Amino acid sequence: MKTASPFLELESGPRVDVTWDGELLSLPKGSNLAAALLAAGVDVFRHTPVSNAPRAPFCMMGACFDCLVEIDGMTRQACMLEVTEGMVITRPQEIGAHANET
Ligand code: FES
Q1: pLDDT, tens digit (0-9, with 9 covering 90-100), for 30-68
Q2: Could you give the CA distance from residue 36 to residue 13 in angstroms, rounded to a whole number?
Q3: Which of 5, 6, 23, 58 has the greatest count of CB atoms below 10 A from its CB?
Q4: 12 alpha carbon – ligand 1 mean position (Å)
Q5: pTM for the predicted model, two decimal places
């Protein structure tokens, strides 16, 4: 279990290419995915289903679910994953988005 801040490891080590919503990003291999995406300038990871409010990582420990992303068709918590070569990451399908709009 890593106990140091996930942001401390972002400047060291080799980088790998991943895709975020169709955009190619170079992120530190093995770093925390949520921290790496934030450092790369991604500031909206998902939207809430009812109000469509933007969300981004908050707790960085798997509790808040504000870091949800979709990887290979599965919705995952970015703060619980490490960056690996070739990840294809998108915002999760927003089922129920705008449910209370008419
Ligand atoms: S940032 Fe809270 S669960 Fe990932």
Answers
A1: 999 999 999 999 999 999 989 999 999 999 999 999 999
A2: 13
A3: 6
A4: 23
A5: 0.86
